[in-house]
Amino acid sequence: MERVLKDDAVEEKGERARTASFVGGMAISDLVKTTLGPKGMDKILQSTGRGRNVTVTNDGATILKSLHIDNPAAKVLVDISKVQDDEVGDGTTSVVVLAGELLREAENLVNMKIHPMTIIAGYRMALECARNALLHRTMDNKENTDKFRSDLMNIAMTTLSSKILSQDKEYFAELAVDAVLRLKGSTNLEAIQILKKPGGSLRDSFLDEGFILDKKIGIGQPKRIENAKILVANTAMDTDKVKIYGARVRVDSMSKVADIEAAEKQKMREKVQKIIAHGINCFVNRQLIYNFPEELFADAGILTIEHADFEGIERLALVTGGEIASTFDNPESVRLGHCKVIEEIMIGEDRLIHFSGVEMGQACTIVLRGASEHVLDEAERSLHDALCVLSQTVNDTRVLFGGGWPEMVMAKEVDELARKTPGKKSHAIDAFSRALQAIPTIIADNAGLDGAELISQLRAEHHKENCTAGIDVITGAVGDMQKLGIQESFKVKQAILLSATEAAEMILRVDEIITCAPRRREDRMSIANEPGAQGSGKKGTPETEESVIKSSRQAESPCQRSSG
């Protein structure tokens, strides 16, 4: 039979393809499984690039993002982890672990000669049943402000309890809730700036209203400005050079050089006058500001800030209500930023610029302090997760208990559905229930507890009416989640459930993997030696090289030859 694919293309069919997909999915799941729960362990990720950067984290999305993966099924799980991180911020490990457990159960069912489509149909029925079970048990306190704030605090502490900030989770939960409630229902986290400053301890971190820019105020400029009008710009404020590549200017005396310098200065002076004409008292630029324009601004009593990083000026423009300008001919078309006070502050040993009373009232800055850059990076990731979950919860105010309680509630309902369902689908529904119970089992195992024993106790507890039992990893026993205040956002749990099931379904449908042939780099010698590639001559012969040199010389213009 004629071969359709190229020689180096690889194709795997049927059982082999399905096994490769299952193995890839389960391997990724097993990789991040140990980071799940309050007692989950961290991973060290070391890059092989220059500097060999080290990252210490237990955030599922960060770990998976850093991996170079060859298995196509494993890439599907990495993608759902990224989407979970972008969508709701938390649950990045849970979603991968649940998808891995669903694949593990599906592998056993396939080995029992149950068709993948039957398994998918069973999983879909179980998914609908589990989702409805959660919907019936949600709590919503949006009408009662105090209770809702308490819910947000509990959710923040539950999210932070599995992170590096777990020792000070009450303190950081307070910071995160205050920052999110300032947004007044918006999910735009751009207004919350997280600034990292090494030194001190994590407990020294604080929330500050307004905006802090990690820059110093220039010499001879005002250190404090009230009722500031701010022009945020991205323009060249170095001496204007002749911007033509390779251009040369020849002069016959030093006085002509002085004339050129004077013309450059005059051009810069005109540009500065145009900027001052906007009626501003603070100028923030993305690029360098040379001494001469800085001197002109200082004489006009204008505070200048140079080399502000792009993310910094974008956020500054957002919170002060201005726009980034690059041309200054029409002052009326430029939107200036406004704030009440600009002043220099000290954090640790560093001087920074503080903008308070900004136009966007909900803007604030969380300053993180810590022992090292690695600790600060992980603290920032942890806090970002908490802020994402809280901002989503402010929009969708339904909450659930945590600590394995939702999984046990769903597993109980799915179990009952399996008993009522005839045919092979009931095996798949039963498998879905076992996959859900695997999450509390892993949480218990990671804490060094007897997972099987605790799950059997939990299952017995959940047959009672209105049970609120879950795993308390601190005491190592079954605890009351309501009393312990362990709560999670409904939106996060729903996203985990839907994403994991859909990813498992997608991998289950695979029955063939085709790996394309790699593109080969064409052999240049063979192309050069082809007839007509370079006239009639062969590449590399002296005659040809000489003729090429001659023709290139003839192509040169007289002025190019003279400059050469």
From TrEMBL:
Q: One Pfam family from the UniProt entry?
A: Cpn60_TCP1
UniProt-annotated location(s): Cytoplasm
Q: Where is this region: Disordered?
A: 522-564
Q: Known CDD domains for this protein?
A: TCP1_beta
Q: What segments bear the compositional bias annotation Polar residues?
A: 549-564
Cite the GO molecular-function annotations of the record: ATP binding; ATP hydrolysis activity; ATP-dependent protein folding chaperone; unfolded protein binding
Gene Ontology cellular-component terms listed:
chaperonin-containing T-complex
Gene3D superfamilies per the UniProt record, alphabetical: GroEL, GroEL-like equatorial domain, TCP-1-like chaperonin intermediate domain
Coarse class of the protein's main subcellular location: cytoplasm
Q: Which family does it belong to?
A: Belongs to the TCP-1 chaperonin family.
What is the protein's known function? Molecular chaperone; assists the folding of proteins upon ATP hydrolysis. Known to play a role, in vitro, in the folding of actin and tubulin.
- Cross-referenced PANTHER family: CHAPERONIN
Name the record gives this protein: T-complex protein 1 subunit beta
